[in-house]
Structures are given as C-alpha cells and as structure tokens.
Amino acid sequence: HPNFYSSKTGIYSSKHPLINLPSDPFLDVVTHIFSSKHKGVSALIDSSSGTSITYSQLHPLVQSVAGGLHQMGVSQGDVVLILMPNSIYFPVIFLGVLYLGAIVSTMNPLSSLLEIKKQALDCNVTLAFTLPDKVDTFSTLGIPAVGVPENLKSDNSAFYKLITSDLNSVPRPKINQQDTAAILYSSGTTGSSKGAMLTHGNFIAMVELFPRFEASQYEFISEESVYLAALPMFHIYGLSLFVMGLLSLGSTVVLMRKFDADEMIRLIAKYGVTHFPVVPPLLTALTRAAKGVAINGLKSLKQVSSGAAPLSRISIEEFIQALPQVDFIQGYGMTETTAVGTRGFNTEQLCNYSSVGLLAPNMQAKVVDLITGSFLPPGSTGELWLRGPGVMQGYLNNVEATLLTIDRDGWLRTGDIVYFDHDGYLHTVDRLKEIIKYKGFQIIYLCLTAYTNLQIAPADLEAVLSSHPDIVDTAVIAAEDEEAGEVPVAFVVTRNGCAISPSALVDYVAKKVAPYKKVRKVVFTHSIPRSASGKILRRELRNFLPSKI
Ligand code: ATP
Ligand code: MG
User: Which of 27, 341, 400, 412 has its CA 20 to 30 A from that of 186?
Assistant: First the structure.
C-alpha cells in the first residue's frame, strides 16, 4: 500500500507535511488572524457601493465593535446572531463578537420567521445583527437587534455608534482555544439542520490548514490576490475564506451582496479578480458567461475552486474548455469540520479535476465498509470518517446526535460515501442517507440465489441520465417498494420541447447499469429543487413521488 495508508490501522494520513499549530492554550482566533504579517492594503470591498475597509482600518473597527458590544452588556459566552447578506461589516461584527469571548451564530438572511425563532431559541441568542428592515422581526421575538445599513452614514444609529465606539474600553477576557467561538448550523440538506459548536482552536486550525497552507503551496496566492466573494459569509465555506482565512493572508475580498452573472463578469474585469471560490451552480453560470466574453475580460482569473456539492463531469469539462488557462480544483469540507477536509492540488503531472483533492495537513481519514464496518484500502468505497483539529466539539443541545456522529476516539462520521484513489485523492460517490437500499435476489452461483441488500447510489444514475443529450437536469430518489424495499425513481428535466418517452429513458439507463440498479419510473418536471449551494433537495422531491411505481 502507498505510504499515506496504513493497512494495520486502516488510517489514511495527509500526504502533506505536518503543520505546527499554535500551542498556546490561551489563544483566540481573532488575535491569531491579526498577528499575521502581510503587506495587504484593501481588505474588503463592497462591489455595489464601492465602499471598502483597508487592512489598517480593520483591526481598530473590530475593537470598536467589541467595545460597543461590551457597553451594550454583551459578555463572554453570550450568543450573537448575524442574519445578513454579504457586507463589509459582516467580518467586522463576526470578529468583534469573538474578540469579546462571545459566540456568533449565523443564519441565511432569507430564513422565515419560524426558522429564525427556532434557531434563536436553540442557541439562546442575546442580540442580533440584521438589515434595518428586519429589526422589527426580532422585536416580535423579544430579541434586541442592531440594524446594519447597506451603506453606512454618520448618524445616530446604534450601528454607527458601535463602530465608532471608544477602543480603550474593551476588557479582554481569557479565551481558551477550546472555548466555543461559533455555533454554525449545517445546511439541513438531509434533515433538520443541527448547530455545530466550533471552537477558537477549530478556527485557528482552519486558517492554518486551509487558506494559509494553500497560500504556502501556490505562489499565486498572496496579498496581491483578489477574491470574488459571491458565496454567502453565513455558511462555513464563505466564512472560512472571507471572514477569516483571507484576512489573515492580506488578500482582497470583493463581495457581492447578491449573485448576478453579468455583474460577476464585470467585477472580475473591474477588480482584476484572481480567485473565485464557487459552488456548482456558480461554476455553470461562469462557464456560460465566459463563452460570451472576450477572453481579455477574464484574463486576471488564475484559480477557480468548487465545493459544497457534487459537480458533474460535464460541468467540469465545459469549464476547462471555456477557460483552459485557469487552474481548476475542487475541495470537500463540512460545517462539522470547520471546512477542513480535502482540497484539489494540481501538479504538472496530475490534474485530477474530478476528485475533491488530498486530505488537508494534520487530518486523518478512514473509509468504512457500510455493511461489515471494516476499514477499507485505496480503491474501495465506504463511509468517510475524519479526525483532526478541524473537527467540531459536538452539536448544541443534542447529545444523542453528537454521540452518533463523533466516536470516543474522535472520529467524525461524515455520512458521505467516498473512496481514495491510489494517489491519495478523494472521490465522493454519494451521501449515505441518499443511498437506495434494494433488497433483491441475486444470482450468486449458477442457479443458487440469495436474498441480499444491494445499494444504489443515486449519483451514479444521475450521471448516466445526464449523459443523455436531451436531458438538462435530473435527480434520482428512492421510492418505497413492497417487494424490493426501495427502488430508484428519476425526476427529469428535458431540453426545451423535447419529447422523450419515459420507457425510452428507462431503457437508456438499463443498458448502462447492473439490472438491479435500473430506474423504475421517470417523472418529468420543470426544475430540480436545489439549495443555494447546489445540493439537490431530495426531501422536497419526495412529495411528488407517484403513488404507484
Ligand atoms: P445537513 O448535514 O444539515 O443535512 P449539509 O451536510 O448539506 O446539511 P454542510 O455542512 O453545508 O451541510 O455540507 C457538507 C456536505 O456537503 C458534505 O457532507 C458533503 O455531502 C457535501 N460536500 C461538500 N463538498 C463537496 C464536494 N466537493 N463534492 C461533493 N459533495 C460535497
Ligand atoms: Mg451534513
């Protein structure tokens, strides 16, 4: 076996050298971020208003917010909610709260009142930051809220007072690396979302093992790098980069409040954007837009990285064809690992676009057989377990879920089905929860048959269906079947006006997969429901399952 895998322990280690993480137990992530030396000038730029925050302004602003919060009575251990679209003040507020030893929880600004209420209760929010027109929503919940205007004016507003408050009044509590810094809720793709408790130490590790490590590997990441922030800062992917990691590198973050494809192209040219972290739907939008742009317009782009959801082979190929000069990688991470997981790593010999990359430094993995529980070597598929300094403390108010997710030795069950190839690159197959369990008779030896539990990954069938020229989008889910337990049903969006018969599609798939995997029913639909990060919301499709398969 290759040296990154031990057949004795079943443990995969990172192929990257070990990184020394700060050993001082009393270090908070804000101090850590601001202690890094760099020559960066512009930190955050709001692309809609042109307003910016420079690096020399950033630290004093964070201290002002901390000071103002202290005056308002916020103290160590209190939870402050941020419910806002991307803003140059988002990182300032986030880091200001942490500076005080208080805890941030974030939320999608599109959340409903019910969702806000649920999360605010779950994590016991003492104060919220939100857009001015949402302040009333919080009043109805009895939670004090500060309105953060899109364009700051010198006025009497609470936020203006906060951001210009007296710096000298901030008492620094003792903050331990093991103290909770944020409670981030997972995306809720597979069920109701849970609050992952992430510590200062988790974030320090994230800054070191993800953006700072990557910068040490690529000479094209530096203070000169300009990142386009179209991903939301409230989710771990955008947060790890735009609120923390890149600010420790001295790079420039140009943020979009709302994604718009034409605007994206304009901003890349205007600001000389060099790096663009995306999720699959954004990659598709970029590819499409790039086709209509003179190549000069995008010449500053050096690297595009995709994560958060599976990317189809076609999307990758089309992107590489449209922008061959751009380095393309994928990365894999989750809320529960503070975004630390794997990252693509292209060398001259190897451009492994379809993999999600190599294990981050200091991280370990196991691939666990779904049935026997044994640990599997490279090339074999099973559930990914991760261990390392990015792994969360646990879920808030949910001991049961925590115990089911992290074992006694610190292994986190990711719920993702994967395999490592022989070069140590990780490939995702599907999510454990989406796997279709088909009970069938299998011919084992000549005429001997046995009743076995077979597994079907929806992603495999989606890949086959996507290869059909008349299909533009598709999602496969399990439907209950009396005899077989579960069988696959495909939801299909066809190219405008294409009339294909369901049975032709069933046959199309049947010719390309093992008999038990074949799609049992095709349902035509206008669109596939996806989350903002491109994850298929299969639970929504379940409502549209035909009653009879
Ligand atoms: P929930 O756990 O609440 O159902 P979620 O898992 O979608 O929601 P996140 O923490 O935002 O919430 O997402 C992590 C998951 O995203 C991973 O477990 C994995 O399934 C998926 N993922 C992340 N990166 C990739 C990638 N590059 N390719 C495929 N899937 C990915
Ligand atoms: Mg999850």
Answer: 27
How many A from CA of 476 to the centre of ligand 1? Answer: 18
Give the length of the chain: 549
Ligand 1: residue of 354, 395, 535, 540 to mutate (most ligand atoms within 8 A of CB) is: 535
* Residue 138 and residue 121 in contact, taking contact as beta carbons nearer than 8 Å: no
Q: 504 versus 533: which is more confidently predicted?
A: 504
Task: Give dist(CA 299, CA 269) in Å, integer.
Answer: 8
Residue with the nearest Cα to atom 3 of ligand 1? 188
Which amino acid is residue 223, in one-letter code?
E
Q: Is 188 touching ligand 1 by the criterion CB < 6 Å?
A: yes
φ/ψ region of 389 (left if φ > 0, alpha if ψ in -120 to 50, else beta) reads alpha
C-alpha to C-alpha distance for 492 and 471, rounded to whole angstroms: 7
Dist. CA 393–CA 276, nearest whole Å? 30
- The ipTM of this complex is 0.99
Phi first, then psi, for residue 329 (nearest 5°) are -140, 160
Query: pTM to 2 decimals?
Result: 0.93
Collapsed DSSP state (helix, strand, coil) of residue 491: strand
